[in-house]
Amino acid sequence: MRSPRSCRRGPWTCTRIRPTPKPTPFETARPADKAFVIHCELAGTGRSLRSAEGALEEAASLTAAIGIETVRAEIVNLQEARPATFLGQGKVDEIGRWLEAEDDVKLVIVNAQLSPVQHRNLERAWKAKVLDRTALILEIFGERAQTREGTLQVALAHLTFQRSRLVRSWTHLERQRGGAGFLGGPGERQIESDRRILAEKIDRLKAELEEVRRTRNLQRRKRKRAPSPVIALVGYTNAGKSTLFKRITGEDTFAKDLLFATLDPLMRKIELPSGLEVVLSDTVGFISDLPTHLVASFRATLEEVLEADIVVHVRDISHDETDAQRADVIKVLAELGLTEETDAVFIEAWNKIDALPDASAEDPPSGASHGEDRGTQLPQDQQAEKPSDGHHGQSRGERPVTAPVTAEALRESARQRAAVADGTPKDPLTVALSAQTGEGVEDLLDLIDEELTALRQEVTFELAATDGQAAAWLYRHGDVLSDLTTEGGTRTISVRLEKRDVGRFAKEHGLEPVEVDKIAAARA
Ligand SMILES: Nc1nc2c(ncn2[C@@H]2O[C@H](COP(=O)(O)OP(=O)(O)OP(=O)(O)O)[C@@H](O)[C@H]2O)c(=O)[nH]1
Ligand SMILES: [Mg+2]
Fold it and tell me: What ranges does the record give for the region Disordered, renumbered to this chain (predicted)?
């Protein structure tokens, strides 16, 4: 999508963006396939990293993600939200008149969180369907979910959302396919929004989900028994996780220039350059302003991330708002429980480096996926400290101005950081790459290899020759390097184990290692 062009200035800033092409995979016949998209910019909300234009563009991309064409898009600046209609009366009327004139537009996307009352009043005033941000995201999730678990999670998230409002109809559970049901469609019917029925449905879904999860846990435990380190790819939606997954595994996953292309997690075994087998996991993308209950619904999907040995945060480094996206991802990870204390090593993959101009070129390379002048700013954590005016409520036009950056500068900066970073969420290791061209992907795999080696220790245990259980444990959890039994009946086993397994073994079998050879120390 092109950058929005301003078409009018005044009390409302109005922007028009080119109609988005309809993505084909999810094109379905539906009552509403054209939408008016509004981004509401509330004064004083302190969007210092994200511009209103960027937010509007994202809302239009979300709309496109379910095959709906944005025919008009607009930023509405608000001093405050009106309790009854969110927008001011003048604006409500103006939009109402426009909708009346355009009789093929029957859907308005309001990029904000609407209260049930606001939602109902707007639908009445406009005689059109209204979706707010959460409803829109749920709608996308509803279309994407493919596995039983994914479908159940979406249904649960949807019902929880309904319970928080208790005024809308819900229909998707009755429908065979597609969507979370906000858009209506054949067979839509009003179902009483009774708390008790809702609560029962939620309980039933939770029980079903629990069952599915138990199966998953069994599978995971099986995997743990033959321990393969887990590498999880996380990141903002559209950052390129699936493309990178595909590049590494050769697997034909669904990578698309669509928000939330991936919903269900995907896992594959791969072999690192050192020969070490690991499990690589592609996950659902994150997005800003995702309500906490939605994040909670996807906890199960993201459990793999919580157990990962290495978390690769894939960033679209060519995106104008790459810093805001990074902050959002870190926030969601923290909500999921991934914080500084986590054992996992964090790596940032600065993806789409090919979409940035090289040092020698003046223009971005043509043929880049965006094909347009995307952000050419050094990620904010890479910039020199700037004096702060202590004012957080920056609005559009007041965003920090940063120097243009080239792919070469980023490569260098990633290298420098990787040399000193400690691998925590705040101070991740970095590698610049392009999942599309393959540049830097080997570097990422080498980095993962190195870190996994550092996470493992070579330790030696002395156990009684009769202690078959302890020996079996070591064989199950590590790579046994040597195993000798003396005539005196002592069995000496040297094994390469994950650090946390050394502690676990000591706890379970009461045996401390007699010798620890830190591979990491040897490397240093
Ligand atoms: N130029 C360029 N485009 C890329 C690169 N990697 C991915 N893309 C494009 O970015 C878009 C999104 O890629 P995906 O791999 O689907 O992104 P994702 O992170 O899996 O997205 P979700 O599943 O929606 O969370 C696609 O159009 C890709 O072709 C890259 O290295 N360079
Ligand atoms: Mg994906």
Answer: 357-425
Confidence of residue 447 (pLDDT cuts 50, 70, 90): very high
Quick one: pLDDT band at residue 243, thresholds 50, 70, 90? very high
Nearest CA to ligand 1 atom 27: 257
Same domain for 87 and 176, yes or no, is no
Shared domain check, 293 and 426: yes
Q: Are both 417 and 274 inside the same structural domain? A: yes
**Long-range contacts of 336-343, Cβ-Cβ distance < 8 Å, separation of 24 or more:** 336/295, 336/299, 336/302, 336/305, 336/306, 337/306, 338/305, 338/306, 338/311, 338/425, 339/425, 340/424, 340/425, 340/426, 342/425, 343/309, 343/500
Check whether residue 262 and residue 324 sit in a common domain: yes
51 or 191, greater pLDDT: 51
Q: What is the pLDDT of residue 221?
A: 65
The DSSP annotation for 192-244 comes to ---HHHHHHHHHHHHHHHHHHHHHHHHHHHHHHHS---EEEEEEBTTSSHHHH
* Residue 88 shares a structural domain with residue 149: no
From the CA of 23, the nearest ligand is 1
- Strand order in 456-464's β-sheet? 479-485, 490-498, 456-464, 515-517
What are the pLDDT digits (tens) for 193-204?
467 788 888 899
Are residues 159 and 107 part of one domain?
no
* Residues flanking ligand 1, CB < 6 Å: 235, 237-243, 255-257, 259-262, 285, 351-352, 354-355, 368-369, 434-436
Which domain does 491 fall in, by range?
A: 456-523
- Ligand 1: which residue has its CA nearest to atom 13? 240
Nearest residue by C-alpha to atom 26 in ligand 1? 257
Ligand nearest to the CA of 371: 1
**Nearest ligand for residue 354 CA:** 1
pLDDT of residue 126: 93
pTM of the predicted model as reported, rounded to 2 decimal places: 0.70
Q: Is the Cβ–Cβ distance between 440 and 244 less than 8 Å?
A: no
- Count of domains observed in the chain: 4
Site to substitute for ligand 1 among 233, 238, 325, 348, most atoms within 8 A of C-beta: 238
Q: Are residues 408 and 270 in the same domain?
A: yes
Tell me, what's the pLDDT at 104?
A: 86
Least confident of 184-193, 246-255, 343-352, 460-469: 184-193
What is the structure's pLDDT at 391?
Answer: 36
- CATH code for the domain in which residue 355 is found: 3.40.50.300
Note whether 190 and 232 are same-domain residues.
Answer: no
pLDDT tens digit sequence for 3-53: 433 333 333 333 444 444 443 333 333 556 899 999 998 887 655 567 888
